[in-house]
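Q: Now give one record:
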Amino acid sequence: MKNFDSALAFLLKKRYLLLSVFITVLMISSTMNGLWVGDFWEHSAVVRELSTHPFSPGHPLLAIDKSHAFYSPYSLTVALFARLCHLDPVAALSIAGMVNLVLLLISLWLFVGLMFENKNTGFYALLFMLLLWGQIPWSYSSFFHLRVLNYVLPYPSTFSTALSFIAFSGFITAVKKNKKMWYIAILVFLVIVLLSHPYTFIFLTVGLGALLIGYGKKWQDYARFIGIYIAAIILALLWPYYPFFEFIKSGSSAFHGDVGSMYVKFFSRTWPALLPGVPLIIRRFKNNFRDPLVLMFLGFCLIYLYGHFFSKSAYGRVVAYLMFTLHFTIAAGAAELEEKFTVKNLSSHCSRFIYLCLLLLILVPLSFRDVLKVGLRNAIPGKQNSFEQYKIFSKYVNQNDVVLSDIYTSWFIPTFAGKVVASNNALAFVDDQLLRRNDVNRFFSKDTQLQERLEILKKYNVDVLIINKNQVKDWEPVAAQFRPLSDIELANDKYEILRLRRPVQVMD
């Protein structure tokens, strides 16, 4: 019995590490499966362009003389790593994702350990971040539930969130223990996060502000806070890879129409954390109205509501951080309750283990269908990756070729070869992106005549036409029109790759 109790004591003591190892194994398996989707392909195109031209990159997607808002310190670091190790962008980002995961797990542990007296809070914080969600939670970057975790690990948002947790830890240390050197590190983190993922910069700013109000006691604390923010903005303006001021002034507006779903089915997606979390937030407020968690919660609520009422839907992304505050608050409550939970005639370790099992018996069934099952399914070894079929493009298309393909296939092409006419991503600094999408859709429309198609090809100086037979419903007439005007690079059951002969004539 004594050995059993000792084993339970070990498991309880190392529970955060054990959960972290379990999650890491799952994510390694998911990463090896290569089930990449969505914005991954924009990030990978960015890494490809930066690794090829690290000092003078062009636009990663389009053949235009514009910069790109993803040319951040994070992306540049991944690109230089890819260049140094001779890795393709998919492999480099996959490795970066695992580094980000380890950094996130460590930084969360450090922050929660400084924020809360009960050391078990970290385990519950991680557990609730992963599982405590409602029906089909949002699948965007900055969300770290198991439904989406494997997809977002390579993103700059994950790296930036980890840096934010380290910055919070450093700020608490700087204020409580007068460790002024931490302010230099926080300044560096502010600049990196601001340039790498502005949404996370909101999280970092609100979090630091809440910690300042909660822990700051001297006017010097507030002065340093203002000073490092001014310095961070000045340094961000000096970043040479994209015009930060232009992005803040007008470029970010491209993203406001892209995330309206943040205001759809809010309660059904959040209720497992909302129902227990809000009363606990209120309790914390009554105990201490300067409680940093309370201030974070209120700050994110105000920003979330602002985004809704002023039609700035991109600010709805702070719902991820709003959920952080609820998860952390519930975690603190769960850890507190664990200390009080006892079973008659059993040791404290047995009682706490039973408490943990009871909690998991509630949490696992609650989250299984919409979160846990998806995460486990993505980690089953041997799944077919989502990009193998597109590697063939690099054999027939040069990096600077202008490629016209359907909007869906255009997501993938710049990662492997060429620049596309249009992409379905929201792009800062590109004023004609909607026109470009319309032209691509018009090109493949069955009602479009050859004359108009030739005009579109000439307009964008297209070198290569890629016809995805699974995406273009009426592809045969298009292929038939352009085979006589092209050299056929590839023709199989999936694609036709046609290199247009020069010049592409527009008929009178």
About this structure: The chain has 22 helices and five strands. The first strand starts at residue 402 and ends at 404. Residues 348-378 form the longest helix (31 residues).
